[in-house]
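# step 3/5: fold
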Amino acid sequence: MNTQTLEQMKQLRFYGMHRAFSETLQAGSVQYTNDELIAHLIQSEWDDRYNRKIERLTKAAKFRYKAIIENINYDLGRNIDKNQIQRFANCDFIKNEDNILITGSTGVGKSYIASAIGYQACTLGYRVMYFNTNKLFTKMKTAKADGSYLKEINRLEKQDLLILDDFGLKTLDSANRHIFMEIIEDRHGKRSTIIASQLPTEAWHQIIGEQTIADAILDRLVHSAHRINLKGESMRKKLKKNH
């Protein structure tokens, strides 16, 4: 009977329950009352599904770094408010459809912090996508050429959190400017966006170009956003010194 039950669990894809029940059948395992056994099997199945969901979400996000909130370095010279980061870890900013802007010179850890917040969002069940901004623009231009642009735009719009890294490395041309405007417009007041850039937000107007569009984008993106302005020396240089 137990063999048949285990096989049925497999067929029903109750993998967590299957593993837990297999373990309880092994000699010398913990003895459970009926109520305890049912609770143990249900909890094991819930844990398994939760872990697989996080795995799916983090895989789909395609983060640049495997980054976690607990490993963020709060050295005094970095200008990071630990309380602020911990508030972001609750992901209330996603519930409130707020944006986060992370600025600072190269190597100070902008991408790591953005990825850590994104990974935390995945653990709470939010859909997240991470992109290098220039690569995203290239992808969207290709999508326009092959007819899949609307599908890609809709996919971006559905993400609870969109992370755009390395924004502002190149001045936007007309096509990229309109793509960027469409992405931000679609998400404004509905979804959250994190943008990481080496340039201070005051310089973004010039990077976007064409005053009317730049005004419209920055009005939706910047004015009510949370800010992290990182300082200090490059973390990559620091790591090299320590090795």
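# step 4/5: annotate
The longest helix spans residues 34-61.
# step 5/5: archive (pending)
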